[in-house]
Specification:
The protein is an alpha/beta fold. It is built from ten helices and eight strands. The chain has an eight-stranded mixed β-sheet, with helices on both faces. Helix 1 links the parallel strand 1 and strand 2. Helix 9 packs antiparallel against helix 10. Bound molecules: uridine-5'-diphosphate (UDP) and magnesium ion. The site of uridine-5'-diphosphate has 16 residues, from strand 1 and helix 3.
Length: 316
């Protein structure tokens, strides 16, 4: 039995050694062979040379260097494609997904679960803003999305070969792995944990990247925003009919001449706003359709150390 551990890293030079040591310590105590697959997501610091050294020293370390920064979800996908294990664990390389929890994940897998998901109850060093936006994001998602997306869901999880092979058939660009895995079915179990602060460095998720991930999540799992645009349009249409009735009433029934320019201006601005919002929503989806129909590869690598060919068992 082989366990694969997949870790995306982006400018994590100060964490790589610490992470490697902790994982090695935990894994040597388990009764399984393992491979540690690092995916370097276009780091510009010394991460890639540190990983090269590790791969030279330890043949269980496999390193894939992506040609540029593709983002966390794509880096994870790349690692999953190259994993050969009977079960695979994905985790962050900054110690926020504690390696000490691996034996517990493995135990739940041994009990017969296909997917072990972890739920982050809280993050010790999360800013007030991040905790707040994350909490409400999940709440809104759950109202809108067709599949349940658990609050605090993280990309720290274990999947067995069966679940992984199914996941690998999902090749969309705008990927929100948490949602896809939740939608796979099979026997899933949850494990709660508190994420410790980052060991070193700062979060690699810029506000821009967070907004992108959030929008990918919404657009990939829900068409409610499109419907919402229609409802708002209907409401404002109705409003304008009421306004016309009011204007006709005033015109025929009262002798006073009303200038009415304010109402007109408000109506124009209001309707203009609604139309732009609706167009924006359509644009969000259209942009994603455009990305998908191009059928571009999800990622491409520039180098790999100790790695074998991607695992293609899912296509058989
Ligand atoms: N990461 C990545 N590509 C990116 C951004 C982040 O591979 O474009 C990696 C990063 O190195 C880390 C993991 O994804 O191992 C989670 O990122 P981070 O800790 O910055 O996110 P946070 O914990 O703040 O949500
Ligand atoms: Mg982190």
């Amino acid at each position: 039995m082989l366990l694969s551990i997949v870790v995306p890293v982006y400018n994590e030079e100060a964490n790589i050694l610490k992470f490697y040591q902790s994982v090695t310590e935990v894994m040597t105590k388990l009764a399984y062979d393992y491979e540690l697959i690092y995916v370097d997501d276009g780091s510009t610091d010394s991460s890639s040379s540190l990983l090269h050294e590790l791969a030279d020293r330890d043949k269980r370390v496999k390193v894939l260097l992506l040609a540029r920064n593709f983002g966390h979800q794509i880096a994870l996908t790349c690692g999953l494609d190259y994993a050969h294990g009977d079960a695979v664990i994905t985790m962050d390389g900054d110690m926020q997904h504690p390696p000490a929890l691996i034996p517990e994940l493995v135990r739940l897998w041994e009990e017969g679960n296909d997917v072990v998901r972890t739920i982050r109850d809280s993050t010790e060093d999360a800013s007030w803003m991040k905790a707040f936006t994350s909490k409400y994001y999940y709440k809104v998602m759950n109202i809108m999305a067709n599949v349940p997306i658990v609050e605090g869901g993280s990309d720290f999880r274990l999947m067995n070969r069966k679940a992984l092979n199914t996941l690998k058939r999902f090749r969309e660009h705008g990927r929100f792995l948490r949602g896809i895995v939740g939608d796979l079915g099979y026997k899933q179990v949850e494990l709660h944990f508190v994420a410790p602060p980052r060991f070193a460095g700062v979060s690699k998720f810029s506000v821009r990247k967070m907004i992108h991930l959030a929008l990918d999540g919404v657009a990939a799992f829900s068409t409610v925003p499109l419907r919402l645009a229609m409802y708002v349009g209907l409401a404002s249409g109705l409003l304008s009919i009421l306004m016309i009735l009011h204007i006709l009433f005033v015109h025929f029934m009262s002798a006073t001449v009303v200038s009415g320019w304010a109402t007109l201006a408000v109506a124009i601005f209001f309707l203009g706003g609604v139309q732009l919002i609706a167009l924006g929503i359509i644009g969000e989806y259209l942009g994603r359709v455009f990305e998908e129909v191009k059928h571009r590869p999800l990622y491409w690598t520039k180098e790999c150390y100790n790695c074998e060919k991607p695992d293609n068992t899912h296509t058989k």
